[in-house]
Amino acid sequence: xxxxxxxxxxxxxxxxxxxxxxxxxxxxxxxxxxxxxxxxxxxxxxxxxxxxxxxxxxxxxxxxxxxxxxxxxxxxxxxxxxxxxxxxxxxxxxxxxxxxxxxxxxxxxxxxxxxxxxxxxxxxxxxxxxxxxxxxxxxxxxxxxxxxxxxxxxxxxxxxxxxxxxxxxxxxxxxxxxxxxxxxxxxxxxxxxxxxxxxxxxxxxxxxxxxxxxxxxxxxxxxxxxxxxxxxxxxxxxxxxxxxxxxxxxxxxxxxxxxxxxxxxxxxxxxxxxxxxxxxxxxxxxxxxxxxxx
Length: 294
What we know:
Elements (H helix, E strand, L loop, with lengths): L4 E5 L21 H6 L4 E2 L11 H9 L6 E2 L5 H4 L8 H11 L9 E4 L9 H10 L6 E4 L10 H11 L3 E2 L1 E3 L1 H4 L9 H13 L13 E7 L8 H16 L3 E7 L6 H15 L6 H8 L8
Parallel strand pairs: 1-2, 1-9, 2-3, 4-5, 5-6, 7-8, 8-9
Helix pairs in contact: 9-10
């Protein structure tokens, strides 16, 4: 199977995208349909807080093309309340619910809290061994000890043994001072809040699976992202040359800019690796109004 590049945001419903990502006048009930006509995946952060009903998931599938991918985050009741093995029954129920997406189900996303240290390696190993092989999984660790020897290699070997991706979260753009002086007061405050909330961890672009999973936390001054996007685009192109499918999710402290970051990312990757047109471009072309003769 050839490599595919998927690009998207952490959510699909944002009223502020009306007139940019969504056509003017788009109703909230149509956000998912319009989102999926322009971008190719969504991180699905909402499932971290609440598991949707199976009928809701079926509706999501009905509103998106088969080529679209949902990457739902495992609920916090599984990842953030004690050991993982204590919640295997909940994990099975979650998988069963999200399986209603059919071919639209992309890798699920397990985000572990900062307190989940390598001391819990045995718990993580047992949980991943119990995970069904047919369901792709990406794992994000946040305790700093996972990023140094010997735990870094042990984690990578564990994930590689199950064809699971190690999530990379890149927060460098929001820690850069570039452009900060020209940010408006409220935007700058949101920037500072994001810096405090997001982890400051090493960037280890080490591939452990047949797919990669990058969470890019972008700067609200769009041009400040250029050097980071260019570097990542080169890395992603190398991965795709090796037949690896890549998922990239663009976040920004000011969510209005998430879609534009996606578009720029796609343009840069397509300059380094041949990609089909972004659906967004084709959707925009369909909105061009023909001139009236009278």
